[in-house]
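Hi support team,

I'm filing this because I wasn't sure whether my run with hypoxanthine finished correctly. The job status page said complete, but I'd like someone to confirm that the output block is well-formed before I use it downstream. Pasting the exact inputs I used:
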Amino acid sequence: MTGIVLGSGLGPLADAVEVEREVSFAVAGLPASTVPGHSGKFVFGSLGGSPVVLMKGRVHLYEGHSPQTVTAGVRWMAGQGIKRLILTNAAGTLNPDFHPGTWMMFCDHLNLTGASPLEGADFVDMSAAYDPAWCAVFRKAALALAMPLHEGVYAGLRGPQYETPAEVRMLHTIGADAVGMSTVLETIQARSLGLSVAAFSCLTNWAAGISATPLDHHEVVETGRQAAQAMISLLGKVLAEDAKPG
Ligand code: HPA
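And here is everything the job wrote out:
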């Protein structure tokens, strides 16, 4: 079974799933998300004939939750038997070639939250955090769908304020292509549990200072909604290929 975490505005992905049952965050011991555009439930079903559990919405450090709470959904889904995890989010782009409204697959990340969900001496190897073989499958499927799919480095910050232009220049200098406020802790938790991870950012806006327009959360959610269809097609294709016999 594959776990899929849906970020801001990506709820429509759930409409592509044949739903078997739903479980509220509360039943799974998670707090409800307080962010507009994030509903709080797990949806079990199938996508492209392959079994999935969707996590609709997530909880964030910037809501005041601990790194352990932020990653509780990943541990819960692992307990339900997922072997692979697809993480999605909304992010600002700081790569001039990666335009808002397109998707970026993570090839790596910068965890700039100052936090980790791991306690004790869990020195988990992060040298191939995003499964290269699985990324190759997504790359090939995107090509077949003629879907633009960038690949780059995601910088995960705590937020909730958006970045200053100076911070965005710093992020660019240290190698980031996109910036957001989630995902990195979930990847760390998933790798420590031995799950394969793939992650995708919906690039909803130019990061601060790159364009003259100020950032607006509603615009972020709306752009995510419009770009969701491309990701639905990509995930549907990859999971349907998995479900084929042989
Ligand atoms: N910065 C941080 N998080 C975000 C952004 C951004 O520009 N856009 C969507 N999530």
